[in-house]
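Let us work through a complete example step by step.
Step 1: write down the sequence.
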Amino acid sequence: MAIAMVLVSAAEAGAGTDSRAVSFDKGWRFTLSDSTEMRNPAYDDSSWRSLDLPHDWAIEGNFSEDNPSGTGGGALPGGVGWYRKTFRLPRSMDGKQVYVDFDGAYMNATVYINGHELGTRPYGYASFSYDITPWLNPEGENVLAVRVDNAEQPNSRWYSGCGIYRHVWLRALDPVHVALWGVFVRPDRVSDSEAVFTVTTDVENTGRKGRKVALSTEVVSPAGLVVASAISFLDVRRGETVTAAQHMSFRNPELWSVSSPNLYKVVSRVSADGHTLDEYETVTGFRNLEFDAEKGFSLNGERMKINGVCLHHDAGALGAVVNRTAIARQLRILKEMGANAVRSSHNPPAPDLLELCDSMGMMVMDETFDMWRKKKTSHDYARYFPQWHERDLRDLVVRDRNHPSVIIWSIGNEVLEQWSDARADTLSLEQANLILNFGHGKDMLASEGDSLSVNSLLTRKLADMTRQLDPTRPVTAGCNEPDPGNHLFRSGALDIIGFNYHDDWFKDVPVNFPGKPFIVTESVSALQTRGYYRMPSDSMYIWPERWDKPFHDPSFSCSSYDNCHVPWGNTHEGTMRHVEENDFIMGQFVWTGFDYLGEPTPFGWPARSSYFGIVDLAGFPKDSYYMYQSRWRPDKDVLHLFPHWNWKEGEDVDVWAYFNNADEVELFLNGKSQGTRTPDGKSYHAMWRVPYSPGELVAVSRKEGREVMRDTVRTASEPYAIRLTPDRSEIKADGTDLSYVAVEVVDKDGNLCPLADNEVTFSVAGAGFNAGVDNGSPISLEPFKSERRKAFYGKALLIIQNNGDKGDIAVEASSPGLETATTTLRAL
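Step 2: predict the structure and record it as tokens.
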């Protein structure tokens, strides 16, 4: 049966790379099986599962050591899946050019319309579009079928997810229209007194005859006022695309910044004979970026550090599914910590992430590839790179270049082309140009003679392509070879030198790379398990001994004292000091903001998610979160006391406190002072070694004798009850909005029981459903799609999703021997 289309615009849906698109997410069918017959319109899919997109089938599976993704890929299943959607076009689309747009599908997505194959896009993070007009049935049913193939694994060093995990859109346009991503608002000169810019617009004609059209462009301020406008007259021939450049300016722009993310709307209208043929809206912002080799980074003339974190794309229990609320929650938690930037590690991000960063004031390093020609895993993108890298790079830059949040392009992460490959690096210029399909490299002759470094030339090619598409932002790459002999550095093509780790090399950057701005593209890689503490806290645990050497510790846990890190990394405090004390270091992107599925360094099975995050997989901050907050949020008083206070009588316990805006911290145990600590200039925490006695631990921070803050930790008695705390009591009745409910096991006085691991069972009724459960444990093999979850160090998480209805959502959590908890949410 055909599904009647419900037209929801991109603006109403809250996302979309094209303002003219309507959501095509609802009403799909899915099967995790494979047959060539599934492409045919007449194929009977009535037994398939009904669902709405986005969708990730892997997150619904069970963890297994035998899954070919391995623990590095999250130990979840892959396979081949098919999606089908049957629909009728509304009358409003008669005579239109119709396109289907995919924000992303992982991976090898082959798309069919009414049995006709439109094409395959291998890269699972690329956005892509197809013109489906010639094969549509305007009067009857149409079937869109998509085959997603993620069977060949491993193909990723982290959890990728499987399926159409991002949004799908439909566009119906006049044959003469602005092309997809066809507007570029290029700033020429921006200050707080004037914005001077050029708007280039691609107008294409897919019709049967040429048209003379007018292109009018208006710039609308955050207050809704037209502050600049221009008009151009174009003769667009049949089958051609014409690019118009309109030079514009206006006075006193409201600049985009991390504290005031002001956004403008650029409205492009194509008209002929008094009728509007097309209208396209581009959201952008105006800001001034400066990257200085000595002074660091400035935004709108204000010097600041780029206080960034790396983020992989999964959302914990939701898997790779793109959900706007889930992304906003991550960004909100990070911004509260004081972060002002994220790095899309290591792939093109979902458009939703950039739109939220635009509106929330988070800068972005937008990254394209994790590998180039040389593979890192058996079946990764390297096999597609030769054919697809130009298209994938172009599509990323053209799609994302209007986002004011994007400040740096990264063309690669730890690519193996940093190092020599005699077979590749001694090619003649003619051979290199043939391989690279690139006839520009006469100035790239390697110093050893007449040979050419193809790796350096490839770097130059990617960087030059990026700058040609967007000359307004610098290009970098995350390099884990700090030596100037690195082929990426030797190319001279990188505007910014980017180091992944290698803190000992930081001091030599101004000498090794004179005149080049520098940023730590990836830093720290400390290892922590929320709630677990290994003492003595002033002993350092460097795990594993080497990146390629197997490691085992029976705890499968890493200490939260900031005394455990990988051999190539550093502690959180260690790298922070380098960044703070050196003006030439523009900032850092900490690995990572959140724990993520896959790559459970330093452990193997049954560990299946990372230990690197400042925040755990469920979204609960680890203790180091408050170290960053104390340094990155001088506007906020911070005092964080840890660990918990449930130990063995007489046991020596190391007590830490992160604090700021104070010149001393005093610790009390059951009212008795344990001493006062003052900043020593060497660490960012205070520490006491205290013989354990149950009761109350209190830290008091003071400045010039005046109390600034106090924090208290109490000994918890036996688990008594469950406490539910939703992050939002009211959500939208749109079928996608979420509320994250924190689940805590508490004693009779309401104190968190820090060692509790009670299994909690959930019941959800009314206008919502259980979208997933988690607890932040990297070794839990419990499924994410379940009605129950064990607490991990006293905490678990329930994610509630609206089901499309309005009304109450009744939530209940129970566990044997504990008082049941209930809460009620409201979908409006």
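Step 3: interpret the result. Residues 71 and 608 are 5 Å apart (CA to CA).
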